[in-house]
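Hi P.,

Sorry for the delay on this. The queue was packed all week, but I finally got your sequence through. Input first:
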Amino acid sequence: IVYSVERDRDGQSFTTRRVVAIQKGRPIFNMAASFQAPEPGLQHGFAAPDAPPPESVRSDAEWAIINADRTPEPFKTLWTTRERPIEFRAVDHAGPFDPVAMPPRARHWCRAAAPFSVDEPMMRALFAYASDMTMLDTCLLPHAIAWSDPRLQVASLDHAIWFNATPDLNDWLLMDQDAPVSGGGRGLNRGIVYTRSGQVVATLMQEGLIRLRESV
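Then the structure:
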């Protein structure tokens, strides 16, 4: 993969860059990034939603084992044997089978599967990777459609993150997500990320493809 970086602007406080990832001569990824020099300022944040502690919530890996007998291949092997660098625990668990329509709201605890040490830019990059894993689920909840439905075609279309601080994946983070609208084969998902102590560290937006085909 070749990364083409455009230096759009260098200001005293803010810097912007555009990045295009190119593979086999074709662009496969576009990113616009804005960087700010740290400075003090007015500060507030939403209060964290009520959520049970992560220790009392089953992990995705545990649910995969519980549902193994009902899971078809290749998903059974993939879900029960793969290594998971990020551990997720769904507070509002929606099973992959026999789905029931639910409000488009989901809370997930997440953290790294093992402790690690990196600098702040790398920690933010790793969180950006993790933040893509649960957003799209939220806009499917009102429609009672499971990920295992063969008619369903899903993909992340665009993804935005605003960092209010550096999310530390060595400790539990609570992702509070909702989906205000879906239509035309697309769903819009929002998220606020809190530390375990209740500090807002990031805000997320994602538009995803949720196409339900008539036949497969």
